[in-house]
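Encode chain A's predicted structure.
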Amino acid sequence: MHPSRCYSRQPHSSIEHQHGVAVIDEKNRRIEVRDKALRNLPQVVIQNRLRLEHLNLDGNLLTENALNMPVFTRLKSLSLQRNKIRDISRLLEFLKARCPHLESLSLVGNPGWPLSQRGLIDKRYSMFRKQTECFLPHLLYIDSLPTDRELHSRAGTSIDSDGEGSSSIVTVDSEEL
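Encoded structure for chain A:
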């Protein structure tokens, strides 16, 4: 499993507080709600959506429908590893409409997201990554790995990115494989 790139803890960069189920930095820009068996977004996340830049919801019971959420104007990174997301197309539609500046997304461990085997990236996983990158125009990292857009920007070249993602991802349960 890939470590989440959705936010990095920098020692001494901010003070974190426990707020019930969430760990929040002092400026409410980073919230972590991990392994709490949540089926819906906690109120603290919704209340801080206009300031929030990094959100980690790993290890919960969230589905794509739980992410039909209000607009998060500043959200740059979202980690949803090990949840119950099956319909990736629907999730991406929600994220495109509600997280306009999303740069990093992590979906490893969800039933609708293909697994990379032993660090190898197979064709199906590559297809999902490419379609996700096309659909979300600002995305630079998927599952902590740089997108083609990020790799090209590092190399000083540009690629076409109109941001109009017309392709959809076919959802297949991992049990069907």
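The longest helix spans residues 123-135.
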